């Protein structure tokens, strides 16, 4: 014990000796994060984010699912007792009838922090992850800036701006758990790129690749993908100042293949699941081009609430506020501009070009010519919507540039009069505009702006909102106040800037202003709600009377993801992981063209026959402020049933037409897409089906039948479900065939069958091997310099 303690003390002394100049500033970043999140950090009921956003509608239920699988805190039945205390769920049976959970990247199933917090109460787990990722992005920006030679205080300001500015922190407001996780590791990717271009050490490639892999594991594939695109743009712009360009290029090109290897155990199953999902082959143009950054939202850099989004006035601008908000504080904006001005002309143009490039990408379909080229030409670009997410990188680079601007002032560089005069002039203009907007004559101008938003069809605020008494006036007043406050802060920054010419210590007041500004912004955008009051909790009494483990499904029109909390299977959901076949079928039930199937479906038609095929027996719908459960399809199917009559059809539309025919006997006939083997005998069958064990990913059955027949399972078919023969079975192999286009059918010979139906995600086994082998190889290369030199990964003179 004494030896261990001595080792700990020695390690602490080494860390302090090497990093003592930085540790207090990093502790300051941590303290700022804790001061925001500490109030409900480990709460069992209160969770951060705005009610109605993603935590409210999705992640709280997902976290309940993970928590119950990790702790097995669920009601036990004989079928569940076979499962070990800790279960890693690969399949989610509770939404969309069932779909890949490991392939749903937003589940972040292999992301280490996910399982570190899974043993906490679900609300606490979400709060801890939010705080953790907020600190990580601030720490990453700090370390990147400090490595670039910036003073600790300057790096600290940049870190605060990165974690509390609008391009990141508004995702806390919106409850975007996977967004926050993937965004948090971005600074480390660019730090690794800079490190490699400067020093050509293998550790920098590993840093960038490891951070990119963590972005993939964290769950938001789009941010990982956009980081790769931005990293490519960044590398091209700054490559020309690197030495040994060919070696630099080869190292940069190695980053993302190495990241793919590090993350293969997530990347391959996600790709496999995507190829079966509604996103297979890319999204349609109309869907993909949604949510580009409106150019007019550049105004939020100075007046963040010009378009509403306060307690008094809802956001009325285009798209959604959390991805259209660029605020990094007016002092932070001034510092960033001053940071750019500190470069020589060539480097200044590079940074301006970089910011212009990410903003052009963020504009999306608002710059239609560029967007259409990217949509058609760049692999996977068409699979995502919301090009406005590129604005995050503008905020990230802006925070680094702000740190550079602070560094110039801390290095006693005299602030120019022109800068201060510019802030004063711009601020005065904003104040005057705000005063003018408060006059009666400005109302018509404001209404024309509002009408242009409404006419764009990209404003998601209902028109009737403005009919309410006093709302229009409150909207004008909010816009005017936002301009006056933003302009006033710019004038204060300008005055301090000019004062710093004579009194250099005033620079610290500017730094304090930058920190306090974004801190207040973040504090005002950190709402919370009680999980005990969400819609899904209203179903507790219903499930107490109607045990969800009895096998029925429900259509939940209010909280479709809440089935993960109650272990209740549902026929719809609220995320992009729905199987394409299943979505096509559900689209068909609504009288729509299955070719237009997406994750978004407004279910208004209740087809009792076809919903009964999915075991749907209840519909949960609003009644006043409550949720009402109405029985439908009382003769819904069970999970397993035996069928001997079948018909083979190849065409999806032909299958749907047959299923919709009231004369088609769904209980005694099934449509296949190929001939079964063994072929069923078309006579009545005596059979028994006995459940031996079950989990989220497998079902163990004993089936006896006196004739060849077929077992139909009313769960969605996926190519990754298979049946494995167990001892005592008369059959040596089993096929899992698509039945009725969306279900599963297993042909059975006469006799006793014992088999396990299990979900084996495409690429998971290969991905695990690749990931562990890749990490082991990288560790060996880092540990043994002779290996790196022998393989010529580093030049002999690399330091």
What can be said about the biggest beta sheet?
Answer: 4 strands, mixed
As a whole number of angstroms, the C-alpha radius of gyration is 29 Å
Which class best fits the helix and strand makeup? Answer: alpha+beta
- Report the average pLDDT across residues: 90
Per DSSP, what share of the residues sits in E-state strands of 2 or more residues? Answer: 5-15%
Quantity of strands, as a count = 18
Low-pLDDT residue intervals, each spanning 5 or more residues:
75-83
Give the N-to-C terminal Cα separation. Answer: 38 Å
The largest sheet has its strands arranged as 6-5-7-8
How many helical stretches?
A: 29
Name the shape in a single word.
Answer: globular
Report the helical percentage. Answer: 40-55%
């Amino acid at each position: 014990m004494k030896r261990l303690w001595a080792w700990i003390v020695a390690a602490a002394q080494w860390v302090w000796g090497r990093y003592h100049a930085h540790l207090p500033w990093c502790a300051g970043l941590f303290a700022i994060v804790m001061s925001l999140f500490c109030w409900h950090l480990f709460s069992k009921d209160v969770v951060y984010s705005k009610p109605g956003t993603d935590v409210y509608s999705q992640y709280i239920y997902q976290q309940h699912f993970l928590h119950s699988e990790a702790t097995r805190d669920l009601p036990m039945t004989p079928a569940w007792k076979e499962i070990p205390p800790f279960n890693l769920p690969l399949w989610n049976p509770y939404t969309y009838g069932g779909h890949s959970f490991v392939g749903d990247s937003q589940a972040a199933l292999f992301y280490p922090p996910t399982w570190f917090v899974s043993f906490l109460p679900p609300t606490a787990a979400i709060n801890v992850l939010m705080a953790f990722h907020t600190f990580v992005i601030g720490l990453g920006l700090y370390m990147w800036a400090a490595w670039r030679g910036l003073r600790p205080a300057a790096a600290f300001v940049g870190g605060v701006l990165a974690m509390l500015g609008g391009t990141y922190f508004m995702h806390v407001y919106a409850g975007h758990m996977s967004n926050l996780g993937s965004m948090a590791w971005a600074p480390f990717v660019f730090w690794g790129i800079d490190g490699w271009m400067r020093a050509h050490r293998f550790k920098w490639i590993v840093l960038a690749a490891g951070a990119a892999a963590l972005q993939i594991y964290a769950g938001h594939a789009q941010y990982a993908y956009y980081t790769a695109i931005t990293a490519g743009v960044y590398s091209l712009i700054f490559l020309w100042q690197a030495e040994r360009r060919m070696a630099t290029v080869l190292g940069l090109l190695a980053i993302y293949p190495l990241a793919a290897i590090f993350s293969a155990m997530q990347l391959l199953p996600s790709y496999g699941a995507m190829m079966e999902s509604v996103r297979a082959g890319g999204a349609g143009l109309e869907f993909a081009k949604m949510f580009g950054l409106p150019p007019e939202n550049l105004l939020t850099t100075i007046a963040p609430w010009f378009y509403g989004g306060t307690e008094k006035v809802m956001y009325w601008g285009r798209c959604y506020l959390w991805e259209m908000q660029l605020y990094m504080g007016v002092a932070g904006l001034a510092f960033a501009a001053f940071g750019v001005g500190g470069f020589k002309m060539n480097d200044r143009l590079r940074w301006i070009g970089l910011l212009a490039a990410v903003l052009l990408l963020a504009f999306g379909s608002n710059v239609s010519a560029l967007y259409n080229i990217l949509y058609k030409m760049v692999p996977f670009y068409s699979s995502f919507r919301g090009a406005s997410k590129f604005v995050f990188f503008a905020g990230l680079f802006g925070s680094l540039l702000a740190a550079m601007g602070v560094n110039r002032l801390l290095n006693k560089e005299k602030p120019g009069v022109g800068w201060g005069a510019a802030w004063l002039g711009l601020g005065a203009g904003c104040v005057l505009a705000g005063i003018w907007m408060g006059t009666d004559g400005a109302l018509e101008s404001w209404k024309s702006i509002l009408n242009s938003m409404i006419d764009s069809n990209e404003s998601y605020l209902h028109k009737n909102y403005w009919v309410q008494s006093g709302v229009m006036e409150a909207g004008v007043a909010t816009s005017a106040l936002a301009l006056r406050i933003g302009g006033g802060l710019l004038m204060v920054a300008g005055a301090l800037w000019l004062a710093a010419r004579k009194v250099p210590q005033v620079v610290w007041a500017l730094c304090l202003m930058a920190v306090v500004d974004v801190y207040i912004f973040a504090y005002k955008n950190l709402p919370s709600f009680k999980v005990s009051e969400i819609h899904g909790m209203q179903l507790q009494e219903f499930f107490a009377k109607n045990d969800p483990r009895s096998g029925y499904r429900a259509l939940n029109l209010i909280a479709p993801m809440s089935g993960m909390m109650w272990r209740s299977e549902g026929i719809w959901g609220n995320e992009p992981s729905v199987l394409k076949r299943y979505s096509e079928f559900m689209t068909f039930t609504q009288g729509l063209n299955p070719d237009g199937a997406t994750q978004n479906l407004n279910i208004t038609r209740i087809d009792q026959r076809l919903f009964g095929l999915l075991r749907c027996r209840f519909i949960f719908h609003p009644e006043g402020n409550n949720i009402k459960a109405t029985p439908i399809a009382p003769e819904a199917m069970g999970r397993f049933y035996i069928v001997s009559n079948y018909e083979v059809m190849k065409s999806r539309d032909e299958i749907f037409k047959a299923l919709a025919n009231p004369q088609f006997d769904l209980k005694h006939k099934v449509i296949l897409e190929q001939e079964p083997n063994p072929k069923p005998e078309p006579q009545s069958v005596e059979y028994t089906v006995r459940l031996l064990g079950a989990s989220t990913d497998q079902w163990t059955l004993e089936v006896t039948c006196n004739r060849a027949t077929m077992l139909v399972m009313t769960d969605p078919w996926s190519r990754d479900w298979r049946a494995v023969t167990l001892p005592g079975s008369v059959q040596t192999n089993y096929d899992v065939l698509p039945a009725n286009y969306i279900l599963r059918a297993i042909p059975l010979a006469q006799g006793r069958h014992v088999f396990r139906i299990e979900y084996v995600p495409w690429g998971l086994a290969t991905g695990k091997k690749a990931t562990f082998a890749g990490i082991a190889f990288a560790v060996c290369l880092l540990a043994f310099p002779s290996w790196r030199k022998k393989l010529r990964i580093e030049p002999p003179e690399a330091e």
